[in-house]
Amino acid sequence: MEENNAIIFTQTEKVATKQPTKEEIKNIKMIANAKKIAERIAAKAAKAAEKELAKKNKITKIYIHDSSMYKVLNWCLNEFTNGLTKKVTKEELEKANNIEKKEMNEIISENDKINSQWTTKIGEGVVYNILKALDENPRRPESLNGYSPDWETDKYIVEVKTRNWTTPGTAGEKVFGTMYKYSDIPNIYGKPLLIICVAYQEWELTFGNTKIFGEVSETKKAFLQLAKSFNIEYMKFSDLFNKLPNDVKEKMLLKPEKIENDI
Question: Is residue 167 a part of any domain in this protein?
């Protein structure tokens, strides 16, 4: 009896410790690999979703609320009191600079709560709003070959150049090099590049010593034509704004309470 039990135990032990076949090992490896692939795909999808959310949040932060739009548009389209377009004293210009900075930072605080680089944020934000109103489908473009332009629409890549009205200096001179700096963008993205100039940057390039808009010398015209031949053009913000229907423009330029009273 004991001998029989020993035989049964030995046989059971052999069954329990039976090594998997090659086919079973292959199946186990396939399942493990499939699991790893699924995990990688899920991680990649989660990362893409996170990136997309971050992109949307970034646009939301720069989007200018309707209640502030009339202030921003008036700042973009009209000369600022005692700014660089007038002959004023140093003290008057400094005072105007403090007023301009305070007013515009209050608008950023409504949307972003970060007061740094307010000129860039206001400029990019207002261009986004107008492109959206024009149904141009603006969004942040994908970074390619080290380039990260400001906006992309269904037809264009958009770079925004904004300058405030009260800070003296030669910052505007960088705008002339933009067409060279971004000369490869039309080929990389497969779309023309629009360089939109906002606020004092538009005024400076229209009425300043070195013009891009309006009457320019034949030499400068040749440079601009060369840029155009590579699908690169400069554009006034006011020209972009004027693409909107008149009733839409008028509504945007009104204070919200004025709109409500008219209704």
Answer: yes
